[in-house]
Design a protein that fits this description.
The complex is a heterodimer of chains A (about 700) and B (about 350).
Chain A lengths: L2 H5 L7 H20 L18 H39 L2 H33 L3 H31 L1 H16 L2 H12 L3 H25 L3 H9 L4 H12 L1 H22 L8 H10 L3 H28 L6 H27 L15 H36 L1 H4 L11 H20 L3 H16 L6 H33 L3 H31 L1 H16 L2 H12 L3 H25 L3 H10 L3 H34 L8 H11 L2 H33 L8
Helix pairs in contact in A: 2-18, 2-19, 3-5, 3-7, 3-8, 3-27, 4-13, 4-14, 5-6, 5-8, 5-11, 6-8, 6-27, 7-8, 7-26, 7-27, 8-11, 11-13, 12-13, 12-22, 13-15, 13-22, 15-18, 15-20, 17-18, 19-27, 20-21, 20-23, 20-25, 21-23, 22-23, 23-25, 24-25, 25-27, 26-27
Chain B lengths: L11 E10 L20 H10 L3 E11 L4 E5 L6 H8 L7 E6 L2 E2 L5 H10 L1 E4 L11 H12 L3 H14 L15 H14 L4 E5 L7 H18 L2 E6 L2 H7 L2 E6 L2 E6 L1 H6 L4 H8 L3 H4 L2 H4 L11 E3 L4 H10 L4 E4 L5 E4 L1 H10 L1 H5 L1
Parallel strand pairs in B: 3-8, 3-9, 6-7, 7-8, 11-12
Antiparallel strand pairs in B: 1-2, 1-4, 4-5, 9-10, 12-13
Helix pairs in contact in B: 4-5, 4-6, 5-6
The chains are: A mainly alpha (about 700), B alpha/beta (about 350).
């Protein structure tokens, strides 16, 4: 529970809080001491589980039976543009595509991006991934305009009508927190196998960010611009298209950028249903066959594609606000015409030289066998070291949090067992600092320390459900008041009643450990990067790249080194979740009110004093938002790690997908969304409270 | 409080204008007998609305804008002056009242008519310029013409003419972000003039500019007005600015007009202490004329004679060297004596006594 410690600063230790927390500690203590003997209070009784999966599946199959033809028809309609895009993309010689893509990259991001794009395409071609890349790209190309149109229309509606806004926003929240995998199940059932599933899923996944950006952009148009448009005599329609939309252009293009990234990410994930011969499938199938060299080579293609799409769309969004005078407009038109000419010439040229159209199989560079051999050698050579790392992390960090010291400590791993003596020592280790804190009148902190000790002793999966629920509800009540508490009670009730409490606790545990690690390391790096420009210059491209990376790809190196299992999952989650922790900490520290920093320096703060006594306290709201985003990132990666064998909710979704079991997958998916939303609301409320206390306003980073 | 001119001559008349915010705003004014035009007291009504939790942004505002006149509405922030000008253009919907433009009530205009009013009869300049960031100078200026559906050729001609008028020739293809504040406001002015409006609203047009630029823009604004003779409502919070540009001015406080008159009337006869607060800081010598402070005495023979409208500032050097003072000839031909002593007395004791 990483939030516990940081909450102290924001709450005055009121009596009421103390009493409530004391009750929670007492409850938890009783639960830990009595353990299983509590019966239904310890383990939620199966008899109270409402079997929702059956009815859900029946409802779904009824739905498919009745409306299936409709979706099949839509699927059939969608097949055509996909087929069309694929045919075109395959028919154009790669050399011509290279020229066009390089030119577009040049327009968006200058020489360096153009060079990067050209080299990336050469990589795809010479390493033999061109056809698969184009299959994936075809889906992206079709889904982006659909997602943008749908997103823009819904965003406009939400902007114009307050009622629509109230419906759209929570729906988007839900859509963006339900894991991507879970989307696939109903789509698969409705549309049947094939590329359409990827397309539909990708549109559904990609339009929410467009909606958000449309609303933000349209709302952000300054009042005087609107007034001046009105005074120019604009009709409502003119006002919208000639004033609002162009003024919001940059935000809209950022929406296109985010929609593009989401679309690509979903297209890759959707290849999990198989049979698509695209680049995602290439990675997945080679991972499954433990062909790591091949999967890395294919994973690089995805990464390159993501980076190019991101930089290009982002480049156009940023450029939309820079100045173009008429000269430049003219020369730009000329450049496009020339590019078109060269493009056509390249197509013709490729007819003469077949090499430029289809790269010969014999010329494909394939270092995969060599890579596999090298990897093999490395593993043999360093196996003990790697195993040791894994074992230590597993037995001394992960297992205690998962099962509790009570069960994790055994002679086999720790060298001793949890005898009454050891338990007493542990209790003393917790109680003495707690007593010290209490003596210092930091009672709330003392209570939380005891609570932490208790939960660590019992373990997340080994603590009675009633105690865990109480802790979460009280935390929510403190952060967001009664409304949030009631909301959380309802959410937790869903997890219990649908019988997914156990996998949920495993999800919470995996996510919790990952968040703890990545937040600690990430905020430390963020502090460092905020104080040191050189570090920042190194860190920035790394986190930028990690963030654009489709989640799949992050798995590959860890699976290679540590094989499947929870440890691999943990590392992958940490790698992804560290991004916001670094970013927000650095952002918060670097964007403080300048006058405060100057005043502190003028008073004579040393650098360390400045950092710890001025900057960090002021940056706390931003850092809290970083924690919030860290949790969100962790959860989205957590679901993907089901591929490497976790036994949490993500795995249930994955199983649901594999068996076409709508009920199982959907309940697990909604469960995951509930966990994400609870964590989100609690951390956001805390952050908001802190901001209010500091009188600051913190905008969310995109 | 009201002007002596008859309403029929006015270009634009604002009658009993109220703007209330808050829940059930309109219901506060439903009792017609309490309205000032029916014998009620505006100040009492406004206070009772405030007591009930309503927000009164403008309370019974009345004034006439004469053709070719610069009418300044002056007030501190929150006094309701921006609300009034926004009500005049119906960017803000008044709660009740009448806005007569050439005798036609704007508040009764349909949305379509309103758009036509804005397209052909009104121009407005905003404090924060309100330029469209994605259009260059020329396109910004031509924007209202484009919305009207004017032919590109005619549009270009008109836009270029106003761009020349505000001195931005050569910057047509620049974008707002490339211009200084002063230049951006020139674009704003050009855009509002492009439609050749009959009434021109300027909402604190120079408040966002540096003092030197502001001064320069005020001069240019006056120069433009000498050429164009628009009927202008000019909003400002700067009393000195209003003295510089106003033909007549209104001072607002808490949504109500405190006093209307020529600047010199306000200075010489402030309606209350609130108005006097502003006039205290005024450099009298720039406002007062020889006629305002000359004594009733007959001047000795043989001294220099000046017309009564001479600004006293212009007399300072002469009076410094000539203890005998000057003879002041009033418009009706009568002649009075004025010495440095009179001037000092006037400046020292406040103008009220000196002018009496």
């Amino acid at each position: 529970m990483p939030q516990l410690d940081s909450t102290d600063t924001l709450e005055s230790d009121t009596k009421k809080d103390t009493i409530v927390w004391l009750c929670v500690v007492a409850l938890t203590a009783i639960c830990v001491v009595l353990g299983d003997s509590l019966g239904v209070l310890y383990k939620y009784p199966d008899s109270l589980v409402i079997p929702l999966t059956g009815p859900l599946n029946q409802a779904m199959s009824w739905f498919v039976e009745v409306f299936g033809w409709f979706f099949k028809a839509i699927g059939w309609l969608f097949d055509w543009p996909i087929l069309f895009a694929k045919t075109i993309l395959h028919a154009i010689p790669w050399f011509a595509t290279l020229i066009l893509a390089t030119f577009v990259s040049y327009r968006a991001g200058g020489v360096s991006l153009a060079l990067f794009c050209a080299l990336s395409i050469l990589y795809m071609v010479t390493f033999g991934f061109w056809p698969q890349s184009m299959n994936s790209f075809a889906l992206v190309v079709i889904s982006i305009p659909l997602a943008v149109i749908v997103g823009f229309a819904l965003g406009t509606w939400g902007f114009l009508s307050a009622r629509a806004y109230r419906v759209i926003m929570p729906t988007l929240d839900l859509m963006q927190t339900v894991p991507a995998f879970a989307y696939l199940i109903p789509i698969l059932l409705l549309f049947g196998f094939g590329s359409t599933v990827g397309l539909v899923a990708s549109v559904l996944f990609a339009f929410p960010p467009m909606v958000r950006n449309t609303i933000v952009g349209l709302r952000g148009v300054p009042g005087t611009v609107i007034d001046s448009g009105l005074m120019s005599g604009a009709t409502p329609v003119q006002l919208f298209w000639n004033v609002r939309v162009p003024t919001a252009r940059r935000q809209l293009l950022l929406g296109v950028n985010q929609a593009t990234m989401a679309s690509l990410s979903m297209v890759i994930i959707a290849s999990i249903i198989g049979g698509t011969n695209d680049i995602g499938w290439e990675v997945l199938s080679t991972i499954r066959k433990a062909l790591f060299g091949e999967s890395i080579l294919a994973g690089v293609v995805i990464a390159l594609m993501a980076m190019i799409l991101d930089r290009v769309t982002n480049g156009f969004a940023m450029r939309s606000t820079t100045i173009i005078d008429d000269e430049m407009k003219k020369s730009s038109r000329l450049a496009w015409i020339i590019c078109g000419g060269v493009f056509l010439a390249a197509i013709a040229f490729a007819q003469l030289i077949p090499l430029l159209s289809v790269w010969p199989k014999a010329w494909v560079i394939n270092p995969a066998p060599a890579m596999n051999a090298t990897l093999e050698w490395v593993f043999l050579e360093f196996r003990e070291g790697l195993e040791a790392i894994k074992q230590v992390a597993f037995f001394f960090v992960m297992l205690p949090i998962k099962l509790g010291l009570k069960q994790a400590v055994s002679p086999f791993t720790w060298g001793f067992s949890m005898t009454p003596m050891v338990t007493a020592i542990y209790a003393a280790l917790v109680l003495i600092p707690a007593a010290f804190l209490a003596y210092k009148h930091r009672i709330l902190q003392a209570i939380r320390l005891v609570l932490l000790g208790l939960v660590l002793y019992g373990g997340l999966t080994g603590t009675a459900w009633i105690a865990l629920c109480a802790i979460i509800v009280v935390l929510g009540w403190q952060a967001g008041g009664r409304g949030l508490a009631i909301w959380i009670v309802a959410g937790l009730a869903f997890l219990l009643v649908t019988g997914i409490w156990n996998p949920s606790t495993i999800s919470i545990y995996l996510c919790g450990v990952a968040v703890l690690l990545s937040f600690t390391v990430g905020s430390a790096v963020g502090v460092w990067a905020s104080e040191n420009d050189k570090v920042a210059a190194v860190v920035r491209p790394i986190i930028d790249t990690l963030q654009t990376m489709p989640l799949f790809v992050i798995l590959i190196p860890f699976v290679m080194v540590f094989k499947i299992g929870e440890f691999t999952a943990l590392l992958s989650i940490c790698t992804f979740a560290i991004v916001p922790a670094i970013r927000y900490t650095q952002h918060g520290l670097r964007n403080l009110p300048q006058d405060v920093v100057e005043a502190a320096s003028a008073i004579g703060c040393t650098r360390a004093q400045l950092l710890f006594q001025v900057k960090l306290p002021l940056a706390v709201p931003s850092i809290m938002l970083g924690l919030n985003q860290t949790i969100m990132f962790a959860i989205s990666m957590l679901v993907i790690t089901a591929l490497v064998g976790t036994d949490d909710l993500g795995q249930q979704i994955y199983i649901g997908l594999g068996d076409g079991d709508f009920g199982v997958g959907m309940i697990a998916g909604v469960g995951m969304a509930i966990i994400a939303m609870i964590a989100d609301r609690i951390t956001q409320s805390i952050s908001r409270k802190m901001q209010a206390k500091l009188g600051l306003r913190q905008e969310m980073l995109a | 409080m009201s002007t002596s001119n008859s309403p029929t001559e006015a270009k634009l008349s604002c009658r009993n204008l109220w703007k209330l915010y808050g829940p059930n705003a309109a219901s506060h004014l439903s009792d017609e007998s309490r309205l000032p035009q029916n014998g009620g007291n505006a100040a009492e009504l406004a206070q009772s609305i405030r007591d009930q939790g309503g927000i009164v942004a403008s309370a019974d505002v009345n004034f006439d804008l004469m053709p070719g006149e610069i009418f300044v509405i002056m007030g501190l922030s929150g006094s309701g002056k921006s609300t009034v000008v926004r009500c005049l253009s119906r960017l803000v919907e008044p709660t009740c009242g009448e806005i007569l433009l050439d005798g036609q009530d704007l508040l009764k205009a349909s949305p379509k008519e309103l758009i036509d009013f804005r397209r052909y009869k009104m121009g407005m300049v905003f404090q924060s310029f309100g330029l469209l960031p994605h259009l260059n100078v020329f396109e910004n200026v031509a924007f209202p013409l484009k919305l009207q559906g004017m032919e590109p050729k005619e549009r270009t001609k008109r836009a270029e003419r106003v761009i020349d008028l505000v001195g931005l020739e050569g910057r047509e293809s620049s974008y707002p972000s490339q211009l200084s504040g002063g230049q951006q406001q020139r674009v704003g002015i050009a855009r509002s003039l492009a439609v050749e409006p009959e009434v021109w609203f300027l909402d604190e047009p120079f408040s966002a500019l540096d003092p030197l630029i502001r001064r320069q823009m005020q001069d240019e604004f006056l120069r433009l007005q000498q050429e164009l003779h628009k009927s202008i409502v000019f909003i400002t919070h700067d009393f000195l600015e209003s003295l510089r540009v106003a033909d007549r001015m209104a001072i607002m406080k808490d949504g109500a007009v405190v006093q209307i008159g020529r600047p010199v009337d306000l200075i010489l006869n402030p309606a209350d202490d609130y108005v006097r607060e502003f006039t205290n800081d005024v450099p009298w010598e720039l406002i007062l004329t020889a006629g305002d402070i000359a004594s009733d005495n007959t001047p000795p023979a043989g001294i220099k004679e000046v017309p009564a409208s001479t600004k006293v500032a212009d007399l300072l050097p002469y009076l410094a060297e000539h203890d005998a003072g000057v003879a002041v000839r009033a418009d009706d031909g009568s002649i009075f004596h004025m010495t440095g002593q009179h001037l000092i007395a006037a400046l020292a004791s406040g103008v009220t006594d000196a002018a009496a």
